[in-house]
Amino acid sequence: MKGLYCQQNSPGEEMTFIFQERENLPPTRDNDVKVQVRACALSWIDTKLLSEIKLEKELLPVGREISGVVLEVGRKVTFFQPDDEVVGILPLDSEESGLCEVILVHEHYLVHKPEKVCWVEAAGTVRDGVRAYTALHYLSQVSPGKTVLVMDGASPFGTIAIQLAQHRGAKVISTAYSPEDKQYLERLRPPVARVIDVSNGKIDVAESCLEETGGLGVDIVLDAGVKLYSAEDESTSKSQLLPHKHDIITLLGVGGRWITTEKNLQLDPPDSHSLFLKGASVSFLNDEIWNLSNIQQGKYLSILEDIMEKLSSSIFRPQLDEPIPLYEAKVSMEIVQKNQARKRQVIQF
What is the distance between the alpha carbons of residues 8 and 55, in angstroms, rounded to a whole number? Predict the structure, then answer.
């Protein structure tokens, strides 16, 4: 059996992805579930995080969001039995590549997949679902009547976050990074309250949000990165579309929550003072925390079950690309690692 692995080259060089022949699987341990993989979604590999938590390896397994069929269970496994359909996210320290026909997974990383949900949708939605739940339930307590700003709402994560916020009764505003994204967001049902097209760089996000909320500001902001410096210091074209951190602080309402994906966010004293005056707070969105601490295992599994239930009842309608065959996995993973994929890439076996 072959699996896809990432080979880390010298710092600054691009990663290379290789198919590696695997030895036979070890015997199934007491709490292991042997799974025949049917679909595996591709996600960006955060090598810096892996280095910080001392999980660097010469060959990193690729593909962690999997769906498949149980072939065999260990003698202490209580949740599953052979022929069950399952879905889950492999832990950060997993030795297994999800892009392999058969893998071993501890039972505490899997939940049952509803019959109505196809393999590709299950694998392609599970990570964005976990991110959305982490942001909207555990970091910001979304509730009916609140206003949520979702940056880059046409991204796979943005789409699921919008749908979860609307399901919880919140009013949603979203930004679009291109005319195509704007069209996609305007077609969503139920409709978002306002789509702010930032692609031409002429529309002020803070001004639009304050106008939409009658000057009160929004309750929750989910960013997709922020501009930390002035325009002349920012080089990439994508960073030109991002809001400045001052804009986000300006559009936050009293008691607002700013959920950021910007791990290097630096707040200056005037920024902190503005947040203090509003009683607002900043939280950092790192969805890996569920796998880094076993104390939250029960909550994590209930999140996975809830994501599958919402997928089954069509509350979640993910942004997925066409299923990709395994032989194209290397090329697809290179695109994902360069952040060039606008839809979630899923490999189908």
Answer: 13
